[in-house]
Amino acid sequence: MKTLINIFFTTVFVLLLAHFMPGVSVNSFMTALIVALVLGLLNIFIKPILVLFTLPVTVFTLGLFLLVINAIIVMLCDELVDGFEVIDFWRALLFSLILSFCQSVVASLSDK
C-alpha cells in the first residue's frame, strides 16, 4: 500500500513540476503515472549499475556525482516515455533535485 501511495505522490509531483518548470512537459495524468513507474524501475535496476561504475568519481566528489546520475536517470526516462520531455541536462538536474526533495518530505510525513 505504501508503494502505491508513493507512486501516486510521485505522479502528482511530476505533474506539478511539469506545470511550473519551463522546459519540462507532461501530456497527461496517465503519462505522469507512467513516468513515475519508469523512474521507479530505473532507480531500482539501472541506478545501482551506474553508481557502481562511477564509484571512484562519486567518492572523489564526496557523493555529489549522484546528482548527475539522478539527472541521467531523468533524461533516460525522457527517452523511454512518449509525452514526457525535459529539454536539457540542467532542467533534468533541477527536476530530479526538486522531485527527490518532495518525495523525501512525503516519506518523512508518512513515517509519523
Automatic annotation (TrEMBL):
It comes from the Bacteria. InterPro entries: Phage_holin_4_2 (IPR007165). The chain crosses the membrane at residues 5-22, 28-46, 53-77, 89-109. This is Phage holin family protein. Keywords: Membrane, Transmembrane, Transmembrane helix.
